[in-house]
Design the sequence.
């Protein structure tokens, strides 16, 4: 799929939005892994913003060992807004869903290293249960995708 997409900002894309290999990975695994998608300066800005929010939540009574899931966080710092149309991920979203997209759900997750092993895992799941139930099609139509950015390496235990 080739397209030119221009928004109200300064970013535009021309050419393939998603490669055949990425589309095959998405269709096969349900996700596309983009290592190094964010430049180190942006990771630093995002980490600083996340740590500021974490500190604010601790001041409000969040336990130091607890996980944080803060919904609707994207407007709490300009660094987060830069993720909405990021040039490494946004073209893939458009390539999968088409051009008529919007942000309808977001959350900031902070998971400190666990003090003990946990058996609780969210695991892979499909969001949109109510819509899926109402549509009565199996499988349901592709109506959304989730883009996740990991700011720390979670490939080993005790890294959050």
Sequence:
């Amino acid at each position: 799929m080739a397209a030119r997409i221009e928004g109200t900002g300064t970013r535009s894309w021309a050419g393939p939005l998603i490669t055949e290999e990425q589309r095959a990975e998405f269709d096969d695994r349900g996700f596309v892994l983009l290592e190094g998608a964010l430049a180190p300066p942006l990771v630093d800005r995002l980490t600083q913003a996340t740590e500021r929010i974490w500190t604010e939540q601790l001041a409000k009574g969040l336990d130091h060992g607890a996980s944080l899931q803060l919904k609707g966080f994207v407007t709490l710092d300009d660094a987060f807004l830069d993720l909405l149309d990021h040039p490494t991920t946004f073209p893939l979203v458009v390539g999968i869903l088409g051009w008529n997209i919007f942000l309808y759900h977001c959350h900031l997750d902070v998971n400190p290293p666990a003090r003990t092993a946990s058996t609780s895992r969210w695991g892979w799941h499909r969001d949109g249960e109510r819509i899926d139930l109402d549509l009565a099609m199996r499988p349901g139509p592709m109506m959304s995708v989730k883009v996740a950015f990991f700011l720390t390496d979670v490939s080993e235990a005790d890294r959050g």
About this structure: The CA atoms of residues 9 and 85 lie 9 Å apart. The longest helix spans residues 40-59.
